[in-house]
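User: structure tokens for this one?
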Amino acid sequence: MNEKLISKKKPAYPITNALSNYLTKHGRNIKIPVYYDDLLRFQGGVEIYDKDGKDTLWLSTYYAEQESKEIELSLKKMYAILHGDGSNSSLPFLSIDSIDFCTFGNTKPFRIKVRNILNDNYVFLYIKKADASRVYGLELEHILSPNHINFLVHKDTLIEEHITGIPGDHFIEHELKHCSIQDKKTIAKEFVKFNERCFVRLLGDMRSYNYVMVLTHDFDKIEYRIRAIDFDQQCFEGNAKVYRPQFLKENNELVEMTLDLLQKGSIEQYKKEERSLLAKRAVNGKFRLSELLKCMRNDTISTPEKVIQLKTDLLDLTKDIKFKKSSNMGEILISALEYVIRNYKNENPYIIE
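Assistant:
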């Protein structure tokens, strides 16, 4: 089913001048000491296997000695820019433990492990080819979701902070069966909210390996949050089902669990709650959001055929004529957000206009 819903190969869309100016204004566009293409000059790589002996589709790369020193120094500076003030004061205390290359997916990212040699704490960062779809997805996640995103862009290179959590596919296969009934109900509630959040903001392809489960221990329970980690399919596909994780077969176990544990009325309540929260974030961040959406409505991040299909699907679902008038993916997203915000304000008697 997924193969029919999702394109096997999504093209990368360039960063426009308008989007670049937006990123500069908001501190995302910055001069960096190393580019994606620099890392492609590795001499070879060793396959990385997980603890069960399964190929992870990542290669541990190695470089010529002189080039390795230059690249590692540049990556340390990159870390200092992303996580600090960009000064060189912390460089002597940093070590680049590994540079891994992913052979799977559209972006083929590099994963960099940066370790503090004084205490052995380490973090990961990712370096990828910049794609406008992904940048829009990251920014929309930052503005409209409960999660903050740390990333930088310069020309055709994108640097992302690692998003921590248990990979969704691993959690479903190995952890879910050990959860209590109450925990499963909490996870089901979060899945409903995550499903609604992705749909409203048109983030597609949330198969289980494209999100992580974040666990937070409260004093008497565990809170669960699902966080997207892949933003390539922001406003690209034409089939509206792509933007609803419930229709992706990798999530079937979560879907079945949700239907078993939550009553229909509860599901509708959680969907409404999430739409209300999203509308509040959109209103609170309206100036930054409007700047981003202006870039999107003047950009091309999908094909005309997919634009027609998606706006038709959403018109059939909402009966909102604004979708019919939308001419590109940016305008479709604007119509979707305006629809949610309008309903939120109409249904909330306590809002002061």
